[in-house]
Known about the structure:
This is GGDEF domain/EAL domain-containing protein. GO terms for molecular function: cyclic-guanylate-specific phosphodiesterase activity. The chain is an alpha/beta fold. The protein has one domain: EAL domain (TIM Barrel). The protein has nine helices and ten strands.
Amino acid sequence: xxxxxxxxxxxxxxxxxxxxxxxxxxxxxxxxxxxxxxxxxxxxxxxxxxxxxxxxxxxxxxxxxxxxxxxxxxxxxxxxxxxxxxxxxxxxxxxxxxxxxxxxxxxxxxxxxxxxxxxxxxxxxxxxxxxxxxxxxxxxxxxxxxxxxxxxxxxxxxxxxxxxxxxxxxxxxxxxxxxxxxxxxxxxxxxxxxxxxxxxxxxxxxxxxxxxxxxxxxxxxxxxxxxxxxxxxxxxxx
Length: 238
């Protein structure tokens, strides 16, 4: 599945984030919030990452430039040089332009082994990939640690977005995080936007790239092709 990331001022689609889904014959649709932590705990997450990344890159080849692909990595994906090398090889062999790929790493994952993750990020950046710090604001990254990472984007966690238009505390937090991203010359994506009021408040803070059910839930690959072809104001998956 893929969720669009939208430039709110123009309604242009700038990227799709690949999202893992598992349809179990016995359990039905299983949320990644359930099966990803289990895969990490039993040491199988790398076995999931490789085929998911390979498939996402193959499908993204069908999208016109400059639409980007955003893909999530776990702490385990960056934990050893063997796993990093495997990801690099998948990207290099895919035929997809690495400069159109954003690899997302959560703030919590970074803090598990910041030195190793930093080296992994450097290697991915050498390929030309963008690096997004996901769920920003929920972890414990210090400003000095943040500055040391060669990031290209911050993704502000959805927990700060809910009712941001009438929650002064959330509004101030998002305002500060957006200002920080601008000061560091980083792109800023706001996650979890669900209402027009939230979008209006975020736009007033200078937020431009947004993601959430206000525009669209995750959609299938086939639907991404329809989405791309549709006029910006006539899309119907939201």
